[in-house]
Automatic annotation (TrEMBL):
Gene3D superfamilies: BFD-like [2Fe-2S]-binding domain. It comes from Pseudohoeflea suaedae. This is (2Fe-2S)-binding protein. It comes from the Bacteria. InterPro entries: BFD-like_2Fe2S-bd_dom_sf.
Amino acid sequence: MLVCHCNIITERDIVSSIQELLTEDEWRLITPLQVYHVMSKRGRCCGCFPKVVDIIVKTTEAWHREKATPEAEVVDFVGRLRAEHDRMARQQAEARARMRKIRGAA
Ligand code: FES
């Protein structure tokens, strides 16, 4: 099934790229940009990205189901996600504080 009309990319191409990324690191957070990078493509209109995200979720779930990943590793992964989320939130707060300071100085 054709998913990306701009780059003529099928669902099979996308699944294959996701599996390649999961082979490198099965706990990485995969984004549409990473998937397109593997295929040496770039998003143009990016209208296909929501569908690509659906395919990423479906493929990643199937990957871990097939590998029968132990529960402890899944819990560790959730912890890593939470830590990454906290780190991003801190960086956003710091950036907002810097912008307020710059605007206040002007
Ligand atoms: S449909 Fe995929 S980039 Fe436009």
